[in-house]
């Protein structure tokens, strides 16, 4: 659009708003609750800067605004829709105002007290489980909503392909050697058992512990690990698990840096959005999955505990900490469908798509907060937002970032759809918060002498959604040390799947089960299927079979001893390989004479009667 036509349209719009201003100011002079004579000016200079523009100079003001909009400042190079939003947001009745660096006006008085709840604050959807997940009644069924059977089958297919390649490579290196028993292809129930062991290791805080310690046989190990699979088999499966087709990976990497895990991750995110409708308060923030290996998009964030890792931007329910949407920061993507902007404006716009036009509120920190972004969310997506603001933003007046103020004091600035507050919690420190949800200068009385504005207390109550999810993941973390970044993302998916599945289970069953009990029941239910199939194998040792039967709670079958046939004694060590043709009269277990107990006829009759 031509610049002259754009200036003409803005001038006409402002003239219309100024005419509305004159009509409203005459009707509200007597009913104004926050009029100009109530304002206390700190200095004479501030009083001069805050004087209203006379009505006969409104046309000059419009021309000045147009001149500012056509300036070459990079912050003002905005689409016409955002220019209109800014002009509409600044529309207020008469009163003193603050002026920012870019000319944005913030009025000191809240001249339109809210009598009714604003339409953008009326939530149209409730926090509830959606139809696709309402029938889930067990721990595994709830978990299977997020890590679906199709995802497991895809992982199984690519893992077996990697195992076959490994077998071929081993056979080529040593043609005389046979394939080891732990290098066989896996099954779906064994893959579930592998994931279950990861959950159980995280449950006992042993996710970073040496695997040899978990499989020790001197009494310090964990029986469930040795009962489920051998240490060599677990390590082999962990090293060979894959999530994509390696033969086509190079081609896909030309358009996507995250090609090795893109399919599984996108399916998981879609399942999270389809299963649950979040509450009215949401949080956007970043997470960091610890990783120090080689990766194109590994980042360094010094204020995170891990410092190095893979950054994930998340949209989380601020009440029950359900993960709604995720996006991995994959660096600068090659040209293609995944080449998107990583600016905060575009990142937030992509994350809020599942909840667009639902009248919810979104809370974020100062890396995301922007004047244009908050107006864009309100007008285009009908979402209110609250966030802290960096003090170098051009829309912040100078008086809002001054530190020479009394502690526990607040300064408010108002526009039609957005409110700004500067709060001094202590000497030489100020916190600036911007909100499209709050439209008055209310102080939270529960804060006592601190006199915190309601905007500040609301931000504090909803800002920690993503941080709590990070903490929940760390409490029972399944992550293990790995040099492959897809495994780091897979561990992160398992952690968040357990959190979401627990929320679904609690809602469907209407119980307050602890997350430790949920993860324990989930892990054991995924292991039992594999234990049943393993117990049917004939080549496992007897002591291992007995442990499996004890774990499953099944009675051991009676041993059938063929008379006159020599079999191995069940009580002797396996290395002795001692054969016997004797058996126990009570359970028919084969035993040698060393473990037999001799009784005379009278004692035998007495023993049988007892």
From TrEMBL:
Protein origin, superkingdom: Eukaryota
Pfam families: DDE_Tnp_1_7
Region (Disordered): 1-60
Composition-biased stretches (Basic and acidic residues): 1-14
Domain PiggyBac transposable element-derived protein: residue ranges: 139-501
InterPro entries, per the entry: PGBD
Residue ranges, compositional bias (Acidic residues): 15-31
Signal peptide: none
PANTHER family, per database record: DUAL SPECIFICITY PHOSPHATASE 26 (PTHR46599:SF6), PIGGYBAC TRANSPOSABLE ELEMENT-DERIVED PROTEIN 4 (PTHR46599)
Protein name, UniProt field: PiggyBac transposable element-derived protein domain-containing protein
Originating species: Bombyx mori
């Amino acid at each position: 659009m031509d610049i002259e036509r754009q200036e003409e349209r803005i001038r006409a719009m402002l003239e219309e708003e100024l005419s509305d201003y004159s009509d409203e100011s005459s009707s509200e002079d007597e009913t104004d609750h926050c009029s100009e004579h109530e304002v206390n000016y700190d200095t004479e200079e501030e009083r001069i800067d805050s004087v209203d523009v006379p009505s006969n100079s409104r046309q000059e003001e419009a021309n000045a605004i147009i001149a500012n909009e056509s300036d070459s400042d990079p912050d003002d190079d905005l689409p016409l829709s955002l220019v209109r939003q800014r002009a509409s947001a600044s529309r207020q009745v008469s009163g003193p105002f603050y002026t920012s660096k870019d000319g944005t006006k913030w009025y000191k008085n809240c001249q339109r007290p809210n009598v009714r709840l604003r339409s953008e604050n009326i939530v149209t959807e409730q926090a509830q489980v959606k139809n696709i997940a309402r029938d889930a009644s067990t721990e595994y069924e709830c978990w299977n909503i997020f890590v679906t059977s199709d995802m497991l089958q895809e992982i199984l297919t690519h893992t077996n392909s990697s195992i076959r390649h490994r077998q071929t490579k081993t056979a080529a290196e040593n043609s005389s050697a046979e394939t080891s028993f732990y290098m066989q292809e896996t099954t779906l129930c064994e893959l579930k058992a592998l994931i279950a062991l990861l959950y159980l290791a995280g449950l006992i805080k042993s996710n970073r512990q040496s695997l040899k310690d978990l499989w020790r046989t001197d009494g310090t190990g964990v029986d469930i690990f040795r009962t489920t699979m051998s240490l060599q088999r677990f390590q082999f499966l962990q090293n060979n698990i894959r999530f994509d087709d390696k033969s086509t990976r190079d081609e896909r990497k030309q358009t996507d840096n995250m090609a090795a895990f893109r399919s599984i991750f996108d399916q998981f995110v879609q399942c999270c959005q389809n299963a649950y409708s979040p509450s009215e308060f949401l949080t956007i923030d970043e997470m960091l999955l610890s990783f120090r290996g080689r990766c194109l998009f590994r980042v360094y964030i010094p204020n995170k505990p891990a410092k190095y890792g893979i950054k994930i931007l998340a949209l989380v329910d601020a009440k029950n900490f359900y993960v709604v949407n995720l996006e991995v920061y994959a660096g600068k993507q090659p040209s293609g469908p995944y080449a998107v902007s990583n600016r905060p404006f575009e990142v937030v716009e992509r994350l809020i798509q599942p909840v667009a036009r639902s009248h919810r509120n979104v809370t974020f920190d100062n890396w995301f907060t922007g004047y244009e972004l908050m107006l864009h969310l309100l007008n285009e997506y009908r979402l209110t937002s609250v966030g802290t603001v960096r003090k170098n933003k051009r829309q912040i007046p100078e008086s809002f970032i001054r530190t020479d103020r009394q502690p526990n004091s607040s300064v408010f600035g108002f526009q039609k759809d957005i409110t700004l507050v500067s709060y001094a919690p202590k000497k030489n420190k100020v916190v600036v918060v911007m909100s499209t949800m709050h439209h008055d200068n209310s102080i939270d009385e529960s804060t006592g002498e601190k006199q915190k504005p309601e905007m500040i207390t609301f931000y504090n109550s909803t800002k920690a959604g993503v941080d709590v999810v990070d903490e929940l993941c760390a409490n029972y973390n399944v992550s293990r040390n790995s040099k492959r970044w897809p495994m780091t993302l897979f561990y992160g998916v398992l952690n968040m799947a357990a959190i979401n599945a627990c929320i679904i289970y609690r809602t469907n069953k209407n119980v307050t089960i602890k997350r430790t009990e949920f993860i324990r029941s989930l892990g054991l239910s995924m292991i039992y299927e594999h234990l049943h199939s393993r117990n049917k194998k004939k080549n496992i040792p007897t002591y291992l079979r007995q442990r499996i039967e004890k774990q499953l709670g099944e009675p051991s079958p009676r041993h059938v001893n063929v008379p006159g046939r020599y079999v191995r004694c069940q009580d002797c060590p396996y290395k002795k390989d001692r054969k016997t043709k004797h058996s126990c009269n009570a359970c028919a277990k084969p035993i040698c004479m060393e473990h037999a107990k001799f009784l005379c006829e009278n004692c035998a009759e007495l023993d049988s009667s007892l």
